[in-house]
Amino acid sequence: MSDVLRYGSHIIEDVDLDAVVAALRSDKLTQGSRVAEFECALAEYTGASHAVAVSSGSAALHLACIGLGLRDQAADGSARVATAPLSFVATANAIVHCGAQAHFVDVGCEDWNLCPDRLAQSFEDPALGPLLRGVIPIDFAGHPCDIESIATLARAHRAFVIRDACHALGARWIDRSGLEHRVGDCGYSDATVLSFHPVKHITTAEGGAILTSSAALAQRCRELRENGLVRDTCPDAPWVYEMHSPGFNYRLSDLHCALGLAQLQRLDGWLARRREIAHRYDELFAGVPEVVTPAVGPGVTHAYHLYVIRVSDRARVFHELRAQGIGVQVHYVPIHKQPYYRKRQPGLRLPEAEAYYARALSIPIHAALLDADVLRVVEAVKRAVVETRS
Fold first, then answer.
1. Helix, strand, or coil here: 81?
2. Which helix (H) or strand (E) holds 123?
3. Which domains, ranges and CATH numbers included, belong to the chain?
4. What does the pLDDT look like over 137-191, one tens digit per residue?
């Protein structure tokens, strides 16, 4: 049993080491065949038509926004993009980096994802609605958002949809017609973005991807990740390249993609273990009224990037568990409460997100967690919340 149980952890095995060593011994460390192989594997796994591997989930968000025209639409600074406050700051920052403004929409009180009813109110606001160019919903903690309702609203107002699925690789959901979808198939979004940070379901150390059904958007993102360069424009002069708009060096190397390919082959087993742990937590906390466990909506197969409980006196419980080697964390400080956004939207209140944040506590969940570790976490949480009761 581990001494310190982190809330999330990567798994590196011999197959991963062998894959990376093979890449190191190849003649291409970057811009080689493993990048395309990883992209094809991601597209096949998620059901997307195209995948574009990039250097991080943050880069994926940024390029998807630019690829869908936000940088051009935001030239006068008036453009807005709706997003949820419960996410890592990169989600909203991608909007700002394009010259637009983030419009925060409160979350629902069950799955903590962007609330479609509140989004509808934003679109119907005569002062705000015409400025909304897109929506970036988040699949918070691995629970799929109501992308079908969000997409219906966005399309009615000619706004793009970028699904931030950095928490949700491997999640599934059933639409209103009864059809099952994998998160990432882009049936209801213009693009979906993923992250391969070490605490996610698979890792490339750092890395991300853009998924889309649009060949044009995929090609645009590939150009943008390579400084905006277009090659092979002059058959008689193969050294010629053209830059029609500025891009970035957001490439993912062959070393990273070799690791990602090896990891992707074990993803389903790791997801099954995460779900097993989550169901065990559900059972063991069922008789503890001081602990509110996460809800799962109908037709949803959760990916459980995070397992977030809600407790009273969260700060005391947090410190007590940390002192016992339980690496709890809080996800997240609502983005609208960050100093940068608070200065630009003073007085903004999002009651559901703020109520969630006051009690939220992420406890360990990852595929390397042992059954004994799960019991250790549960017993430590029970002791901490019983003190709150007394």
1. strand
2. helix 116-124
3. 6-264 (3.40.640.10), 267-389 (3.90.1150.10)
4. 999 999 999 999 999 999 999 999 999 999 999 999 999 999 999 999 999 999 9
* Angstrom distance (rounded) from CA 231 to CA 390: 69
Give, for 195, the enclosing helix (H) or strand (E).
strand 191-195
Q: For position 388, what pLDDT does the model report? A: 59
Sole residue written with tokens 């037709």: 299
By the 8 A CB rule, do 9 and 199 touch?
yes
Query: Residues 324, 198: contact at Cβ < 8 Å?
Result: no
- List CB contacts of 306: < 8 A, sequence separation 6 or more: 7, 8, 141, 142, 167, 331, 362, 365
What is d(CA 85, CA 103) in angstroms, rounded to the nearest whole number?
Answer: 9
Q: pTM here?
A: 0.97
Q: What is the pLDDT of residues 71-97, one digit of tens each?
A: 999 999 999 999 999 999 999 999 999
**Encoding tokens for residue 116?**
């479609």
pLDDT over 90, % of the chain: 95
The first and second tokens of residue 107, run together, are 């979350």
Give the H/E segment covering residue 92.
Answer: helix 90-97
Amino acid at 167: H
> Residue 236 — pLDDT band, cuts 50, 70, 90?
confident
Burial (CB count <10 Å: 0-12, 13-18, 19+), residue 70: buried
Query: Residue type for 209, please?
Result: A
